Amino acid sequence: MLPKAELHLHIEGTLEPELAFALAGRNGVDLPYASPEQLRSAYDFSDLQSFLDLYYQLMDVLRTERDFTELAEEYLARAAAQGVRHAEIFFDPQAHTGRGVEIDDVVRGLAAALDGAQERHGISTRLIMCFLRDQPAESALATFEAARPWFGTAIHGVGLDSAEVGNPPGLFREVYDRARDAGLRLVAHAGEEGGPEYVREALDVLGVERIDHGIRSMEDPELVKELAERAVPLTVCPFSNVRLRCVDTLAEHPLPAMLEAGLLVTVNSDDPSYFGGYVEDNFAGVREALRLTESQLRQLARNSFQASFLDHDETRRAALLAEVEAHRF
Ligand code: ADE
Ligand code: ZN
């Protein structure tokens, strides 16, 4: 299995239907589906919003610290089987605090799984807290302050997700300024459904270090040139783009053009329970549909470690990069 880092993964998007039913039973939550199979058959999306509606609805089964530990533990076991050696994991605190779950329960629960991940699964981890861009900037600021005790220990970065179009990055300038001052790493979703101007604004106004998705950057040649020159990583999610109809088919995905343009692209799973596969499944999918060469696949794996926030452990980054070079397909 090709060793890789996963840099674009929403932990809530790893909630498999079977676990959703188990947690619903334990927590006394009524799900409007008869079985995990029936729930899975509802995973047919027309756009980002149609996915988000179900994604937020199903989160209602996540109530206790233990629920978050089990969610993350299931992901880590699956990720290890898919060759993941380092994972930078998003979570959406506002989607939980908005339902009355304490942010400390969420973070403590996730951290309990992540803390032992290297020993149990051979996976080093970082946790990135995302703000919901379709909620007011004041809510992001309040969430940021509530999470402050965890900065530098459990939480190492901030991101921006949820419905993109009509919710431009610039609305969140203040919370990103505070995050930078607090020493956190900065990323944002941009150029998924929104145009290249969202990517430009995330870079220029928020000062992000990485762009999540960024596929629509390809519509602006000047932007592509700058992203390549500055080696700004783009965390691309091929299965997600097809399932949310940002791209018609996997065979038409812009990934090869992005590689050709010299962009620092990586391949990731986004919300693997909903989009039909984990990260190695995405690698296998693009390999087949886009006829990627072994050299391109190795480049994607190399990029994933280069783009990762492993700056605190360059020894590990070097060891993981050496594993990529030693890999035999
Ligand atoms: N939240 C979870 N997955 C997302 C995606 N692909 N885009 C925006 N917000 C998300
Ligand atoms: Zn995402």
Q: Count of DSSP E strands?
A: 8
Unreliable stretches covering 5 or more consecutive residues: none
Which architecture would the CATH scheme give at its second level? Answer: Alpha-Beta Barrel
How many individual helices?
17
Strand order of the largest sheet: 1-2-3-4-5-6-7-8
| Structural class by secondary-structure content | alpha/beta
| CATH 4th-level superfamily | Metal-dependent hydrolases
**How many structural domains are formed by the residues?**
1
- CATH fold name, please? TIM Barrel
CATH class membership: Alpha Beta
Listing every helix as H and every strand as E from the N terminus to the C terminus, the arrangement reads EHHHHEHHHEHEHEHEHEHHEHHHH
Mean pLDDT: 98
What percent of residues are in strands?
5-15%
Q: Biggest sheet: strands, sense, closure? A: 8 strands, parallel
Cα separation of the termini: 8 Å
Structural shape: globular
Query: Level of helix content?
Result: 40-55%
Give the C-alpha Rg. 18 Å
A few lines on this structure:
With 329 residues, this protein is α/β, with parallel strands linked by helices.
